[in-house]
Amino acid sequence: MLPHHLRNSCGVLSDLIRVCCHCRRERTTHDEWREHVPVAGEQLTHGICPDCIEMLYPDLAPTLLARV
Length: 68
What we know:
This protein has 68 residues and is of the alpha+beta class. It has helices spanning 4-10, 12-15, 50-56, 61-66; strands at residues 16-20, 26-27, 33-34, 43-47.
């Protein structure tokens, strides 16, 4: 992940909305996951939320979530 000052100077990264590829919830700036409301023209990038990691990858969840 880029330092905060670089994210803002790039502009592109700060405009992307991070959405879970499985449940479609969106990640907020406070690392919380909430229901995503689609807006025309928004730019999305995909990841996976902690809840979906635990549900889909139970064997790997402790290792993956320890990195977050």
